[in-house]
What we know:
CATH class of the largest domain: Alpha Beta
Strand content: 15-25%
Mean pLDDT: 87
Number of strands: 17
Largest sheet: 9 strands, mixed
Amino acid sequence: xxxxxxxxxxxxxxxxxxxxxxxxxxxxxxxxxxxxxxxxxxxxxxxxxxxxxxxxxxxxxxxxxxxxxxxxxxxxxxxxxxxxxxxxxxxxxxxxxxxxxxxxxxxxxxxxxxxxxxxxxxxxxxxxxxxxxxxxxxxxxxxxxxxxxxxxxxxxxxxxxxxxxxxxxxxxxxxxxxxxxxxxxxxxxxxxxxxxxxxxxxxxxxxxxxxxxxxxxxxxxxxxxxxxxxxxxxxxxxxxxxxxxxxxxxxxxxxxxxxxxxxxxxxxxxxxxxxxxxxxxxxxxxxxxxxxxxxxxxxxxxxxxxxxxxxxxxxxxxxxxxxxxxxxxxxxxxxxxxxxxxxxxxxxxxxxxxxxxxxxxxxxxxxxxxxxxxxxxxxxxxxxxxxxx
Length: 389
C-alpha cells in the first residue's frame, strides 16, 4: 500500500513570472470550468481534454503537461459536486477558480532539491526559486520517498509555498492477521480516548486547547461587532493562528496515540466513520457548544493518526459510529438515558464508566468484529492515507 505526505516549503522570492504563470493557470481552469458548467453535467476527463487542449495550448499559451492537468482537475471538482449533491450537501454550480494555486507534474513541470525548486514558467521557461526547508522534512528527500504531482499555493498572508507531495510503498498489512485492537473516540471533552483489546486505556486531554479557542472566539465576536476593515484584517489573522494551533495540537496528540498503540502491540486502530457527522448531530448540540462542534478538526486528527500508524506498521479502520456513546459496553443496552455528560451509567445493568471511554471500548469491539467479518467473507481491507505537514 502507498503512504503519501505533503510538506509545505516557503518560496523565498516569488517573482512576476511565477505569479503570472499561476494567473494563466487559473485562466485556463476557468475556461474549462465554463465548458463543463454549460454542458450541465460532468464531462469525463478523457473526453474533456480533447475539447479544450488546443485552446489551452494555442490561445492561452500554456505548456503541454499543464494543459493535460487542468481538464483532469476541473473534471474531478465537478464530479465531487455531483456526489455531494446526491447527499444534499451541494448543488450544480459554476466553479470559479482564483489565481492562488496550480498543480505541477514532477520532472515535466518541476524538479526539486532540498533547498530549491525549478518550475516551468509561462514566459521565461524553467526558473529556480529558493526554498525554506526544515530539518524534519529532509528525510523525505531520500529513498524510499518519491516525488509526485505537487502544487504552488498562495497562502492567506500573501506568501507563496511549494506543497511538495512525496510517497512510498509500504508492505501491506492484513487485518485478518491482527490480534490486538484499539478503539479511538474523538471529541471535545477529551481530544481522544483510547482503549485496547486487553482494556488498557489512555485519555488525551483537550481542556487547554478548548480554553484557547474560547479566547479566539470571544476576540472574534468583539471584532465582528466593530465591523471595520482593520477589524476584519485582525479576524483573518486570528483564523490563521487558530488553524495552525489546531494542526500543531493534532500532530502532537496523533504522535502520542500511535506511540501508545505501539507500546501495547496494537495491530489495528479503529475510528468512528465521521462522514456527515456535523449534519447528523448538529441538532443535538446546544447553541453554547455549536462553535466547537462545527469547527473542531476531528477528521484532521484521524488522518494524522492514520498516516503515522501506517509508518509504524499499524492498520487503521473506520467503523459505524451509531450509538457508540449510548450503548453499554457490558450488556449492549442502548438508551439515551445511559449517558449523562461525562459519565456513562447503564440503566439496566448499572455499569458505570467515563462516557468517552465507554465509546472507545465499543469502537474497539466493532473493529474486532469487522476483522472477523472480513475473515469469514474472505475479504481483505487495505487503507490508503495522505497527510499534509
